[in-house]
Predict the 3D structure of the following.
Amino acid sequence: MENEEIIRLLNKDFVSEIEATMVYVRNAFIMSRCDPSRVTEAIAIDEMRHMNWLADLIIKRGGKPTMEHKELDFGGDDLETQLRKQMEYETEAVDRYKKHIEMIDDPEVAGVLKHILDEEKRHRKEFRMRLETIY
Ligand SMILES: [Fe+2]
Ligand SMILES: [Fe+2]
C-alpha cells in the first residue's frame, strides 16, 4: 500500500476520533445521571489519546492530521438516545479499525490500530452496560 493511502486511512480514523471526543465531552455535561456522565467523560479522554497516537503515525509518514469533521450528531438531549448514539460511534469505530488493520500492511500502524480497537470494544461494552441500567 502506498504511503499516501496509509495517511488517508489514518486521517479517516483521526477525524472520527475528533467527532467522538467532541460528542462525548458535550454529552458528559448534559447527562443528568452521574455514572454515565463520568464514564462518557473518561471515554472522551481515551478518544483524545487515540487522536494523539494517530496524529503521531500520520506525522511520522509525512502527512498532516486533518481537522475537517462532519456535522456532529449528539443523539439528542435524552440519556437513552445519547447512549444509543455513542454505542453507534463505537460500533462504527470497531468496524473501521478492523477493516483498516486488514488493509494496512505496516506493522507499526497495525499494532497501534489493534490497541485502539481493543479500547473501542471496551467502550461499546461500557455504554451498553449504562444503557441496560436505564430500564
Ligand atoms: Fe477512539
Ligand atoms: Fe471509543
Q: What stands out?
A: The chain has a mean pLDDT of 97. Residues 3-134 form a domain with the Ferritin fold (CATH 1.20.1260.10). The helical segments are 3-30, 34-60, 79-103, 107-134. The chain has four helices and no strands.
